[in-house]
TrEMBL record:
<protein>
    <submittedName>
        <fullName>LysR substrate-binding domain-containing protein</fullName>
    </submittedName>
</protein>
<dbReference type="InterPro" id="IPR036388">
    <property type="entry name" value="WH-like_DNA-bd_sf"/>
</dbReference>
<dbReference type="Pfam" id="PF00126">
    <property type="entry name" value="HTH_1"/>
</dbReference>
<keyword id="KW-0804">Transcription</keyword>
<comment type="similarity">
    <text>Belongs to the LysR transcriptional regulatory family.</text>
</comment>
<dbReference type="InterPro" id="IPR000847">
    <property type="entry name" value="LysR_HTH_N"/>
</dbReference>
<dbReference type="InterPro" id="IPR005119">
    <property type="entry name" value="LysR_subst-bd"/>
</dbReference>
<keyword id="KW-0805">Transcription regulation</keyword>
<dbReference type="InterPro" id="IPR036390">
    <property type="entry name" value="WH_DNA-bd_sf"/>
</dbReference>
<feature type="domain" description="HTH lysR-type">
    <location>
        <begin position="1"/>
        <end position="58"/>
    </location>
</feature>
<keyword id="KW-0238">DNA-binding</keyword>
<dbReference type="Pfam" id="PF03466">
    <property type="entry name" value="LysR_substrate"/>
</dbReference>
Length: 287
């Protein structure tokens, strides 16, 4: 039984048909059909009932789907474990929110480099929801996101509680300005919109940007307002042009930490990374 056949079978089930599965797998429909037919011949069982142009999962198919998912997850876990050979050789794929990357990652990555000099570290930034999906899909080994994150397949280790504040340019009235936000899926975005509605702002529309610098730069020249971690604002090159205002605790306090697969392989570099972030947080509080 080949893994590519199981992957194809899973795609047909999850995408709802041969055509959609072929698009997801970037192959032609005939390849998908032949793999399913070969799998049925090998198992001696019909996996789907054909109903017109559609497919319905047969009882044998439902049994196989459970095993296929477990086998494919084991395959991904195996690949991840192989990348993490020993304590200092292999690859570590890290995801992070932009704000967290700016505040906390530099010193932590320096600690990883010192303790695991031969480890290849890859870092990418995105929204909390997208990063969570990538960890679940084994595209990232860990990610630093706004929490709390509750998922049966993930563990969440809280590292810091960020304080969100409202910011706008000196001399502007945020009530009359649009929100400036990160893309859909950002945890700060959700809280900013909730705060906007609570205040009953006159302007209900919003602008979206993909970068932290883009958001802060536009706010600094009076184009809008937003909610952002206090330390990000205070350390920004635009700080002198911004007004910082506190918001209620239910909006302001947001736990932030690392997510990783609950059943994932042990990675010594992850502990080094978390220890580095905790150390940098302690130093920031003492400063």
């Amino acid at each position: 039984m080949e893994l590519i056949a199981l992957r194809t079978f899973q795609a047909v089930v999850e995408e709802g048909g041969i055509l959609a599965a072929s698009r997801k797998l970037n192959t032609v429909q005939s390849n998908v059909t032949s793999r399913i037919r070969k799998l049925e011949e090998e198992l001696g069982a019909e996996l789907f009932f054909r109903k017109g142009r559609g497919l319905e999962l047969a009882p044998s198919g439902r049994v196989l789907l459970d095993y296929a998912r477990r086998m494919l997850m084991l395959e991904r876990q195996t690949a991840s474990a192989v990348r993490q050979v020993g304590e200092s050789v292999g690859e570590l794929r890290i995801g992070s929110m932009e704000t967290f990357a700016a505040l906390h990652l530099p010193s932590a990555l320096k600690a990883v480099r010192a303790s695991h000099p031969r480890l290849e570290v890859r870092v990418s930034t995105d929204t909390t929801s997208t990063l969570t999906e990538k960890v679940l899909d084994h595209k990232l080994d860990c990610a630093f996101v706004a929490g709390p994150v509750v998922h049966p397949d993930l563990r969440f280790e809280e590292l810091v509680v960020e304080e969100l504040v409202q910011i706008h340019a000196t001399g502007t009235d945020p009530v009359r300005l649009p929100l400036i936000l990160f893309r859909e899926g950002c945890a700060y975005r959700t809280r900013a919109i909730a705060w906007q509605r609570r205040l009953g702002h006159a302007v209900a529309d919003a602008m979206e940007f993909g970068t932290l610098e883009g958001i802060l730069g536009c706010i600094a020249v009076g184009l809008g307002w937003t909610v952002m971690p206090r330390r990000v604002v205070e350390q920004s090159a635009h700080a002198a042009d911004l007004v910082i205002e506190s918001v209620p605790p239910d909006i302001a306090r947001i736990p932030t930490g690392m997510i990783a697969l609950r059943e994932g392989p042990a990675m010594p570099a992850l502990k080094t990374l978390c220890d580095g972030i905790l150390a940098s947080t302690v130093r920031a509080k003492a400063a």
